[in-house]
Amino acid sequence: MLSVENLKVVYRGVILALDGVSLELGDGEAVALLGPNGAGKSSLVRAVAGLLPKFEGRVLDGHVRLMGQEATHMDPVGISRLGLTAILEGRPLFRYLTPVENLMAAGHRLPPKALKEGMEEVFARFPRLYERRHEQAGYLSGGEQQMLVLGMALLTRPKVLVVDEPSLGLSPKLVEEVMRTLDALRREKGLSLLLVEQNARAALSIVDRVYVLERGRVVFEGDAKAAQEDQDVMEFYLGKEEVGFRQSKRYRRRKRWV
């Protein structure tokens, strides 16, 4: 469904963000892309969504293929028509519009009947969103906004869904709810899901395979079980919890991949 081969991305012609990244996402598969801030995760999202030029970036080398078609330099409209929808970090939505208006904007290409049915499905899945359907989206809570952007994404009828940092700024309870929702949507809709996260524990609970990105390179690739069993990956991204008066994360092991 999505193939990234030896991708190199630069910003403003000099800042190297991705240095030969390769990644594959199969039909109906859920894959996590983990890594710290500055690892290049958002750059990969922008590259596969055709958004790099908006951020003064460009692909220096490599390929992005979507549904078997070359999409390396395709614009966002073309990418969307091929079936990929990306939800960027920060829950982008029209903050001065209501949830109803946001959903109508997202599903503007659907016939009226299909749009109505799609909105009903979104509100049935997210009852709290229905209760606040006529309020400005900017006044919704972080969790409600995340549900709204997921609903907007569904109305684009995606085959591949890329979600960048959906847990950002949410409470642990809401993070669990968002992950359950993503897992349910993937299974019910037959979507291929690329989940870009720093919250490794949350991401590993719903994915099949994992890539770890650091300094623009893939430093680990394997299934979710292998990642959970890898002491370097788990300690660096989850830490060792010390039990006692002060609980904290410690990183005693040195990353052997650097």
UniProtKB/TrEMBL annotation:
Stored CDD domains:
ABC_TM1139_LivF_branched
InterPro entries, alphabetically?
AAA+_ATPase (IPR003593), ABC_transporter-like_ATP-bd (IPR003439), ABC_transporter-like_CS (IPR017871), BCAA_Transport_ATP-bd_LivF (IPR052156), P-loop_NTPase (IPR027417)
Q: Show the PROSITE patterns listed in the entry.
A: ABC_TRANSPORTER_1, ABC_TRANSPORTER_2
Does ATP-binding appear among the keywords? yes
Return the similarity comment: Belongs to the ABC transporter superfamily.
Record keyword 4Fe-4S present: no
Q: Which UniProt keywords apply?
A: Amino-acid transport, ATP-binding, Nucleotide-binding, Transport
* Record-given protein name: Branched-chain amino acid ABC transport ATP-binding protein
Among the record's GO biological process terms, what is one?
L-amino acid transport
What highest taxon heads this organism's lineage? Answer: Bacteria
Q: Which residues form the ABC transporter domain?
A: 2-240
**GO MF, one annotated term:** branched-chain amino acid transmembrane transporter activity
